[in-house]
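Q: Here's a chain of 131 amino acids. Please give me its 3D structure as tokens.
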Amino acid sequence: MCCHIFSMYRVVIEIERNLMEGLYNKLLKTRAVVPSNEYLVYMDMLQDTIRSEIGSCCAEAYDQIEVEGAQKLLMLDSKEEVKKWAAQQEKWNLEGDKFKFTREKLEERLVPFDEIACQTLGYATEMERIV
């Protein structure tokens, strides 16, 4: 009984450690050694979250990536699984044997400095009048 409880805590601590250190491959492998089937629901949710985060980082970091490379990064077993996963993602577009990512144009992402500066000066002026 004592060893079983210790095993349950050990797995949870190992999951947390791997998550904090960013060791996602070890985290996904932990699913195979959970001490109880009740863990599988949470491990599936965690697995989906990890893949989603990796996928969003890929979409921001790369212009394109080959299907095989995406398979390795997402830690999926086959190219078909990668294609199925990517079909559910917004920015992932399959073109031939590569995924191309859609991004916002740089002009749309720029901060309107002039507007913010004028607004800030307006606030300062109003504060000065109040005081």
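Q: Can you summarize the key feature?
A: The first helix runs from residue 2 to 21.
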